Amino acid sequence: MENAFSRTELLIGKDGIEKLKNSRVAVFGIGGVGGYTVEALARSGVGALDLIDNDKVSLTNINRQIYATMKTIGKYKVDVAAERVAEINPDCKVTTYKTFYMPDTQAEFDFTQYDYIVDAIDTVTGKITIIENATGSGVPVISSMGAGNKLDPTAFEVADIYSTSVCPLAKVMRRELKKRDVKKLKVVYSKEEPIKPVGDTEMDSGINPVCPGSANGKAAARRDIPGSTAFVPAAVGLIIAGEVVKDLCKKT
């Protein structure tokens, strides 16, 4: 009998579809990368999604974030994503958290409740906390490395963190995870040398036009403004979703 996931079933079988339906995945960061991951997981029939992000959609998200439109500006990204998931798969249980994930908010989450965890945030401290908690809970985790300041979506690959090179964020993560005795971590990264963003008078003036809708202003303080495109974050997000689906379908 035809259903929304019939075409997927042709590739992974009824058993695979059932495994996805019974899986709960947490996606930390619903931006350029995480948004496309959520979209693909919803369209793959994942039965439960936890969406964690405290940002609101802003004007400059439109160039790369799937949930950013002129109509969604000013709305919380997790709320927009939840509405979209409901339109794709009404049977998917979506739980939203308007939370900036850091050590001081980690107590809000019980990682043992998840079947898979996606790290699509961009702060090193938050990423390390996610990975440590996932590892300690015995839950599979995949982490996005630097997708900003890149132009080649074909350069991204899946690897263990300790096999990465070139990517500045991956270098920092290798060092910090080694200190914490984290033995392995699946990541998506690129060996493309980061492109230095062209100067902008508005950006150079100290104004942050990238995340003006941030709920608590932390987005402006946590990073320099990177350049990005419509296709690089999307490619990373879809690669991550593919790895999640593949691994979930393998689970016993």
Question: Could you characterize what this model shows?
Answer:
The protein has a 7-stranded mixed β-sheet, with helices on both faces. α4 (124-137) links the parallel β4 (116-119) and β5. The model is unreliable at 201-222 (pLDDT under 50). It contains 8 helices and 7 strands, in the order αβαβαββαββαβααα. The protein is 38% helix and 13% strand.
Compact description:
With about 250 residues, this protein is of the alpha/beta class.
Q: Could you list some keywords that capture this structure?
A:
252 residues; alpha/beta; seven-stranded mixed β-sheet; 13% strand
Q: What gap, in angstroms, lies between the N and C termini?
A: 26 Å
Mean pLDDT: 91
Which percent band covers the strand fraction? 5-15%
Number of helices: 8
Helix content: 25-40%
Low-confidence runs of at least 5 consecutive residues: 201-222
Strand line-up in the sheet with most strands: 3-2-1-4-5-7-6
- Number of E-type strands: 7
Shape: globular
Largest sheet: 7 strands, mixed
**SSE sequence, one letter per element:** HEHEHEEHEEHEHHH
Radius of gyration (Å): 18 Å
What structural category do the secondary elements indicate? alpha/beta
Can you lay out the helices and strands and say which pair or pack?
Layout: H1 6-21, E1 24-28, H2 32-44, E2 48-52, H3 77-88, E3 93-97, E4 116-119, H4 124-137, E5 141-144, E6 156-160, H5 168-179, E7 186-190, H6 201-204, H7 218-222, H8 232-250
Helix pairs in contact: 1-8, 2-3, 2-8
